[in-house]
Write a structure and sequence with these properties.
The complex is a heterodimer of chains A (741) and B (208). With 741 residues, chain A is α/β, with parallel strands linked by helices. Chain A has 24 helices and 30 strands. In chain B, the strands form three sheets. A five-stranded mixed β-sheet of chain B has the order 6-1-8-7-9. A two-stranded antiparallel ribbon of chain B has the order 2-3. The chains are: A alpha/beta (741), B alpha/beta (208). At the A-B interface, strand 3, helix 2, helix 7, helix 8 and strand 10 of A face helix 1 and helix 5 of B.
Chain lengths: 741, 208
């Protein structure tokens, strides 16, 4: 239904966003904490260890956790101030329902009544339109226990095929490419392997802002003599002092990788033995990149031939190397191809599966890795099993105590769920840990679809921009109010420990889901008493799968400071580095280190295609979007934390001085950026660190400040990731900010 | 019995990524809770993303203390220059104006000069300061000389700075390239140097 006016004073008083500041015990130097809880940051996929200080059931501060091996005390500004999200005045302490007469658009309702209302709506919609008329959207910041439960809830309780998660906007291109080429979807190496690499190749990863702790690994490799190559349309802070910067034109990464491979072939910078013994498909791939001469590559990528040759030489002749990438090459309508291109140059070098030889995608969300393994994806079952594979269905159905044929078939991706709302096929929605009004492209469409739903229930701890459209809002839990496991960017499974209890009527999310199942009178499989019980079932469900967690326990994680999966038995200590020579995996069964029956990695031909929307006379600029260091994803938490908001209070349009001069814009002027889908008016930031044909807007804000009003809903045909990183736009000077207030 | 090597502060601005973790963490230290005493400078955001963190350099002969008419600024035995003593500080701003590094800040609400005290409550009991603990790029490092020499073979450290006619030696060390032949940083001269870093145009292909 239509959302209440979020700019009204009443709405703001009730739901914010207010910016929290340290006050009271949080500010008093004399405060003595009641306890210190070793846990991890709630934000990104680095999952830095942190110790939360608790007094009177409130997190009052933190202490660096020097003992955790990944970050050794280091934190970014988000981690430093994350404690200010607790005891927040915007926190949802009750269940709410939409109430038109109320000045803020909602009224408090009892938790139990709200659960009953949700159950009645699900029953009504499913009785009238079938079980598939109700959909579920989830997120990759949930613990693995919760993510697992959400997948089971959709398939067993709701019996709907329509569940998908916000990792669809994040990890799926890399995941699909990893599965196609390597047979497994996990960072191949722990970050410590960066330290002994001779060349560190960073493509489309704003490491300093989006994965800040990794910076020290890169700098430290350099102290040991490594050369750092950064490929990005912007000179990000890590690119400022890198050894070679390749200012790629957005959307042309695959052309660069193919061009590098062509030079590797031409100069015989190949590991023939590795290619012969451990891979398939090289000849076909080699034939496919012949056209990518340095001159052609330069023309398409917008990078000089000289720089391309230099990069190829350094990469080609290195003895050890580490290649990492992130959303910069993945958020494309050919994101999978981009990642395959990256993997191809790694495999051709033979530098994988040993110390100092690595490859990794950097995950974005807290559980960007673990959240994509255990069944909240539309086509997936726990253990990274396949919902369309009869054996996989049978294994998981047996663990769940249901007939295999009762499990729905694979559903559709998150954006397609909105298109199905448009078509009238989906009438009801439950969402948790997903804020599509900010995070999906062309979000004016998303807003209309939320309005169109017959019934929408959101589980959230703050009233997000998306939850405003809900009929019922259920008060969920913050990360520090529950326990569970998360898999970090390295593939390291770590343990989140509870610091405080949920306030008011707020509940741990897994309890809310179970309460709905019980109210629906479908309690089978939803009688867990603790996350530990959920994990124990997940261990059985994942056993024998690629993402095998069967040997992982809370105790082992605490003892070892994390366990790298796969960990297939109680006496197994985990697998920090994949693809080591002689390693065993359940697919190859000893035939080789890669996760295919013959144990070989696959070279996959990755043809170049331009972005879906190329620039033209009407929309002559490339718009690319991304993050800033002080905000996280849709900003739902960080825009409510005063010191983080102060660091970056508003989005802006970044552009080159040449372009600024052409448009008559000076630093700080207001300008309107427009695409075929929407527009936003923001201040401009004139910087020499961006390509003159490209503008950049950070995406963490909603409403008229939202960058995703402009982005295109084009998706990769395989991974279904949206093309956030490139669309056509134009820019003009605006008189003032009136357009956005 | 082995001699325990003291821990020192090292700054390497070339590593700085401008993330503000130091600024955010500074205000979490109990000695100056709620106030950040560290300055992160964006050199010239139009020209370069280059940034530089500025902590108190803890001078051997602190100018701030020398110019204080109330003798409110004390240096501890181990060389930490502290925030002005509350009953003595007359909020005259002499120290703020005189410090060549621009470190002391006048807290007008409290009528008190406050400055980086290297997280005295932490460092005095063997803990690392907040900023150097959290710094993701380790542009700010706290450890022994032995450790830094091992970790940063491409750098060496200096602790003297020239400001016009004034030569200042400090307890905090600045890392410079190993092959650099300077013995002190001539700060006044460097003020007029532009920001450095990669140039977007150096490797952009332009259709001919």
């Amino acid at each position: 239904m239509p959302a209440p006016e979020s700019t009204s004073e009443h709405f703001f008083q009730s739901f914010g966003p207010h910016a929290s500041k340290a006050t009271g015990a949080r500010l008093d130097p004399g405060s003595v904490p009641d306890r210190a809880v070793n846990t991890h940051c709630c934000f990104c996929g680095q999952q830095c260890g942190i110790t939360l200080l608790v007094k009177d059931e409130t997190v009052i501060g933190f202490e660096p956790r020097y003992d955790f091996p990944f970050n050794q005390g280091k934190l970014c500004p988000k981690g430093v101030k994350r404690y200010l999200q607790g005891a927040h005045q915007d926190r949802l302490l009750h269940a709410y329902e939409r109430y038109l007469e109320s000045p803020d658009g909602f009224r408090v309702t009892s938790y139990n009544e709200a659960i009953q209302r949700v159950a009645e709506a699900i029953n009504r919609i499913q009785a009238e339109h079938g079980p598939q008329a109700f959909a579920v959207l989830t997120g990759a910041s949930l613990t693995i226990e919760k993510a697992y439960l959400m997948g089971k809830f959709a398939r067993v309780c709701l019996k709907t095929p329509y569940i998908d998660y916000n990792g669809r906007l994040c990890m799926v291109s890399a995941g699909a490419a990893n599965k196609k080429a390597l047979g497994i979807d996990r960072a191949a190496n722990p970050m410590s392997d960066v330290l002994s690499a001779e060349v560190v190749w960073i493509s489309g990863a704003n490491i300093a802002e989006c994965a800040p702790i990794t910076t020290d690994y890169v700098w430290q490799a350099r102290e040991r003599g490594a050369r750092v190559i950064v490929v990005d349309p912007r000179i990000t802070p890590i690119a400022r002092t890198c050894d070679l910067f390749l200012p790629v034109k957005p959307g042309r990464d695959i052309a660069l990788f193919n061009g590098i491979l062509q030079l590797m072939i031409e100069n015989d910078w190949l590991d023939h033995e590795f290619i012969r013994d451990h891979t398939t498909g090289f000849e076909q791939l080699a034939a496919s990149v012949q056209e990518w001469t340095p001159a052609h590559t330069a023309e398409v990528t917008g990078i000089t031939e000289k720089a391309i040759r230099q990069a190829a030489e350094w990469w080609g002749t290195a003895k050890t190397s580490f290649l990492m990438h992130a959303r910069g090459i993945e958020h494309h309508s050919h994101g999978v191809q981009n990642c395959l291109g990256a993997i191809n140059i790694v495999l051709a070098s033979g530098r994988i599966g040993r110390e100092g030889c690595g490859y990794a995608t950097i995950t974005g969300q807290a559980n960007g890795q673990g959240g994509r393994e255990h069944g909240q994806k539309c086509d997936q079952l726990p253990g990274a099993r396949d919902l369309s594979n009869p054996e996989h269905r049978a294994h998981v159905a047996a663990v769940w105590g249901v007939p295999p044929e009762s499990l729905p078939e694979p559903g559709v991706d998150a954006y397609e769920i909105f298109r199905k709302i448009d078509k009238g096929e989906i009438k009801g929605l439950l969402s948790i840990c997903f804020n599509p009004v900010i995070s999906l492209p062309d979000n004016n469409f998303v807003r209309r679809m939320l309005e169109k739903l017959d019934f929408y229930v959101a589980i959230d701890f703050f009233l997000s921009e998306t939850a405003r459209y809900a009929n019922v809002v259920l008060p969920g839990s913050l990360q520090e109010e529950d326990e569970g496991i998360i898999t970090s960017t390295e593939g390291r499974v770590i343990k989140i420990n509870p610091a405080v209890k949920s306030p008011g009527e707020a509940r741990q999310d897994w309890r809310i889901i179970q309460d709905i199942a019980h109210a629906l009178e479908r309690p089978h499989g939803f009688t867990f008493e603790s996350p530990r019980e959920i994990l124990n079932e997940l261990r059985a469900a994942s056993k024998g799968g690629i993402a095998d967690y069967s040997g992982i326990t809370y105790e082992k994680i605490e003892k070892q400071m994390g366990v790298f999966w796969p960990c297939p038995s109680d006496d197994h200590t985990g697998t920090p580095r994949l693809f080591e020579k002689g390693s065993w995996n359940p697919i190859a069964k000893g035939n080789g280190p890669f996760y295919f029956p013959d144990g070989r990695a696959h070279f996959v031909v990755a043809p170049y295609s331009p972005p879906t929307e190329v620039t033209d006379a009407e929309y002559p600029l490339i718009l690319t979007t991304g993050r800033v260091v002080s905000h996280f994803l849709s900003g739902e938490q960080t825009r409510r934390i005063g010191p983080l908001l102060d660091q970056c209070p508003d989005p802006y349009i970044e552009l080159h001085p040449e372009l600024a001069a052409r448009l008559g814009l000076a630093d700080g002027d207001w300008a309107t950026a427009e695409s075929r889908r929407g527009s936003t008016t923001l201040r401009v930031k004139v910087v020499r660190s961006i390509r003159p044909d490209t503008i950049f807007i950070p995406y963490h804000w909603g409403g008229r400040k939202s960058a995703n009003q402009l982005t295109i809903a084009a998706q990769d045909p395989i991974s279904k990731i949206p093309e956030y990183k490139v669309c056509a736009a134009r820019l003009r000077k605006a008189e003032s900010d009136h357009a956005h207030n | 019995m082995p001699i325990i090597e003291p821990k020192e502060f090292f700054v390497d601005p070339s590593r700085c990524i401008g993330c503000n973790a130091c600024v955010q963490a500074c205000s979490e230290c109990d000695t100056h809770k709620g106030y950040s005493m560290i300055q992160l400078d964006f050199i010239d955001h139009t020209v370069s993303p280059q940034t530089a963190p500025m902590v108190c350099m803890h001078c051997d002969s602190p100018t701030c203390a020398e110019v204080c008419p109330a003798d409110a600024i004390k240096r501890t035995e181990e060389g930490t220059v502290q925030t002005a003593k509350k009953p003595r500080c007359i909020a005259c701003n002499n120290c703020v104006l005189a410090c060549p590094f621009g470190v002391p800040k006048m807290n007008t609400g409290m009528h008190l000069m406050m400055k980086c005290d290297m997280c005295y409550d932490r460092t005095s009991v063997g803990k690392k300061p907040m900023c150097a603990s959290v710094c993701p790029s380790q542009a700010l490092y706290f450890g022994t000389r032995h450790e830094i020499e091992k970790l940063r073979p491409n750098s060496r450290f200096i602790s003297s700075f020239q400001f016009g006619e004034q030569l200042i030696t400090t307890r905090v060390n600045m890392l410079i390239p190993h092959d650099s032949d300077i013995n002190h940083l001539d700060v006044a001269t460097a003020i007029h140097e532009g920001a450095i870093g990669n140039d977007i145009f150096s490797n952009i292909w332009i259709s001919s």
